[in-house]
# Entry
Amino acid sequence: MADLLKGLAGGWAFLVSWVFPSLTAWSVFGLLVFPRLDSVPGFADIAATSEANQAIALLGVAFFTAILLSALSTTLYRILEGYLLLPERVAVRWRQRQLRRRTALLAEVAALRARHPEGDAGAASTGISVRIGLINEKLRRFPADPRQFGPTAFANALRAAETYGWDRYQLDSQTLWSELQAVLPEGLKDEMDRARAPINFFVSLLFLSCLLGAACVAAAFAGPTDALALVAAAAGSAALVPVWYHLAVLNTRYVLVVMQATVNVGRVALAASLGLELPRTLAAERGMWEQIYWFVHEPYDPTYVASLDRYRLDPAAAPARPTVPPSAALATPSATNGSAAPAAADPTTEPAATGAAAPAPEA
# Structure
């Protein structure tokens, strides 16, 4: 039965991400709201059926809700990132607030290091190094380039992962996501699905809590019976929304780790699969990946072709395409169950002129 569910629903990642939250929300709805709707057409018919039929209806509506949430996942993510429904004027203010938060964290780290320099015995005894490590973990939830900041903490945590390849190698992992997936070992590809599942789980709970709270309020106004209990349930659902949001942000940490492995390990096989040879220096490699970005993202231009020709392998002398050994796949740390791959997105901020330092393309 479990194998059948995995096959139908796309694996445990789908079940954890979307089905379990939907089933939980509909179960709470059935306990709190459904008994007050027994006079409403449709609900009255379900209430008159057997418990087995009600359970089947619960499973059916939960799976439908899960599929709907999965189909709308990009839209749900963009709402939480502040790219949809947020007025531009508000988005600018929130983006500035995110910049100030990062600046404050950097100042806190600098102050701690100034009071307890590297190697100071007092730093270990007072836990300063641990505090610095925790602050650095928060800093890793921001993009390296301030120009890539989004208006919300959720947006910046995802942008930190999405722009890692560009910041290190000028390799746009979002534009070349499908190509990267084609050369990665199965273990590393599965790792990204596991990393994304907890984020989807809490995103689902966040929006379902909003819907459940609204349903409780509507049921409370529909009749005087137990109205206070329904209002209390609605207040509880609303109180859980920031909790789910914070947990979604925290679980982006492992997405960054997996994206880091994807770029660091996969770029070698990616270059070979594109018929290119990695330059010997990192600076030259960054230039090569920038040219590939222009070639893939922009309309055909002979300038890009001329720039890429010097990196092309000789077909007669080209070795077999290297593949990443399974041992290179990232192992899941025991402390996490996994934490978007980010969906491939079209950049909206293009790099500067060829050869110049350029901002990472925005999702």
